[in-house]
Specification:
heterodimer, A: two-stranded antiparallel sheet, B: about 260 residues, Ubiquitin-like (UB roll), 2 domains, five-stranded mixed sheet, about 35% helix, elongated
């Protein structure tokens, strides 16, 4: 009779293919693509939420929305998945970059001519800019909302944290608005390559769908960061 | 025409290399790039110097042996093999920089010659079909749509020169490997080993130390045979599908 230990050993052996898959050059790219596409979805939802900052109601819609996003159990679960995906996206990017650098070898070319697009070659640099922004951004808003002392506001029977005022104050600093806008440009370039690239990595390259993927990717990478940047700029000038 | 040639000279695999400049005063515009180096080598030999080592074989653009990185492009500025590149492509008096393929998996043997046996090992890992003995099947018995046959043939035109690796900022071999996987995956004859092939060739590619694709498509732009990056997407599908559904539980993946 097999012992429990044996069957556990079998389980580990049975899972080896999964480890192989996600440590292979192709599997690592799949991690980048899937997490990247999820973050794109997240950006869409995040933007829709942020646009409520521009509603002329003293921040009521935004504050009620922020309360909902931090208290709904389903949203909270998804947000933890989202944090994890961000971490995966960053860690796997570092692993891939290190592997790719070593694959190139010690001796470089004296001359390189390339017809490839700039953003495709500089995803790592763009990603690093975005990461720096992300740390500041999380500290400023997410950190305040979760751990800071945010004043409360009462709307009807509901008492919620006044995140709107935190945002409005932050967007009165010209340097923060500038940093925010520059970071959105970095995100735009990152998406310009990343959006369509994710589909290629997942094997979705087909003459019937390529035009749609490329078009939506380009529109998304311009419109979404532009709208994100518009919010602090409008609130700064108000 | 007169040409100034800046060439990478390296005595052996572990020797330190450097650029040396040579003047070629009597190059004909109708010479191929390799013939121009032949002329220079003739002069070097007459002067008692060592000839520049470079790979070449058929000189008809079909064998995949020639491998020079010319002025920042594998096989030079045109989308062709080095042997099919002619001196009329360059200006009189131009300085041309010639380097070997650069990649961890393609170590320099001497001067401009690199060891591309990593490609052979990837092919041996799964780039074949088993043909069983027995009567010869009728050629028209297996129906293959024309478009599919063309697609497979296009993938099969890859000559394995390694320009894709040389052009890629990550020294990724995925255009090569994907072409070799595609040419069989598309055809009925390649179905038996289909999953095993994708798993083993990708695993060997990773073991050789090639990088990952970042979808810059520099490879497609430089490939002398016009292999399309759609093949890389197909390889991704083939590999993912194989890893998720094949009966090889214990092995078959990539990783270092």
């Amino acid at each position: 009779m097999r012992s429990i230990f044996d069957s556990h050993q079998n389980l580990l052996l049975n899972m080896k293919w999964l480890i192989d898959l996600f440590s292979s050059s192709l599997g690592r790219k799949v991690v980048m693509a899937l997490t990247g596409l999820f973050i794109i979805l997240f950006l869409t939802v995040h933007l829709i939420g942020n646009l409520q900052l521009l509603k002329d109601d003293g921040g009521e819609a935004f504050n009620v929305y922020a309360y909902f996003m931090t208290h709904n159990p389903l949203i909270k679960t998804i947000s933890y998945v989202n944090y994890a995906f961000f971490v995966f996206h960053i860690v796997w990017a570092i692993m891939l970059t290190r592997k790719n650098r070593s694959a190139r070898g010690a001796e470089g070319y004296a001359i390189t001519n390339t017809s490839t697009i700039w953003s495709a070659r500089n995803m790592g640099i763009l990603g690093t800019v975005i990461l720096v922004f992300l740390v500041i951004h999380m500290r400023q808003f997410w950190g305040e909302m979760h751990f800071g002392t945010v004043p409360f506001k009462t709307y009807g029977a509901q008492e919620v944290k006044d995140l709107y005022t935190i945002c409005a104050d932050a967007f009165k600093n010209w340097w923060y608005v500038a940093l925010y806008s520059i970071s959105m440009v970095a995100i735009a370039f990152h998406l310009w390559h990343g959006f369509a690239s994710a589909f290629q990595t997942l094997g979705i390259n087909h003459s019937k769908y390529n035009p749609v993927i490329n078009f939506v990717g380009k529109v998304f990478s311009i419109v979404v960061p532009a709208l994100f940047a518009l919010i602090p700029i409008v609130m700064f000038t108000l | 025409m007169k040409i100034k040639l800046k060439v990478w000279r390296q005595k052996g695999p572990n020797a330190k290399g450097e650029f040396k400049t040579y003047n070629v005063d009597h190059a004909s515009p109708d010479m191929s790039f390799l013939e121009m180096i032949d002329v220079l080598n003739g002069e070097l030999i007459r002067k008692g110097e060592e000839a520049i080592a470079f790979d070449h074989d058929c000189r008809e653009g079909i064998c995949g042996m020639c491998s020079l990185y010319i002025n920042g492009h594998p096989h030079g500025p045109l989308q062709t093999t080095t042997c099919q590149l002619h001196m009329r492509t360059f200006k009189d008096g131009e300085t041309i920089t010639v380097e070997p393929w650069r990649a961890q998996a393609f170590p320099v043997i001497k001067d401009l010659v690199v060891d591309r046996s990593a490609f052979d090992r990837i092919q041996q890992a799964g780039g074949y079909v088993n043909v069983n003995t027995g009567g010869v099947p009728d050629a028209n018995e297996i129906p293959i749509p024309k478009k599919i046959a063309d697609e497979a043939f296009d993938a099969a035109t890859c000559i394995g020169c390694g320009a894709c690796v040389a052009a890629c900022k990550n020294a990724s071999a995925m255009l090569f490997v994907s072409a070799k996987i595609s040419q069989f995956a598309l055809l009925p004859q390649g179905q038996v080993e289909r999953k095993e092939r994708a798993e083993k060739m990708v695993a060997q590619m990773d073991a050789e130390g090639f990088g990952s694709c970042t979808n810059t498509y520099a490879c497609e732009a430089e490939c002398p045979k016009g292999i399309k990056v759609a093949n890389i997407a197909r390889m991704n599908r083939e590999y993912l599908g194989a890893m998720l559904t094949s009966y090889e539980v214990g092995s078959g993946g990539g990783g270092e």
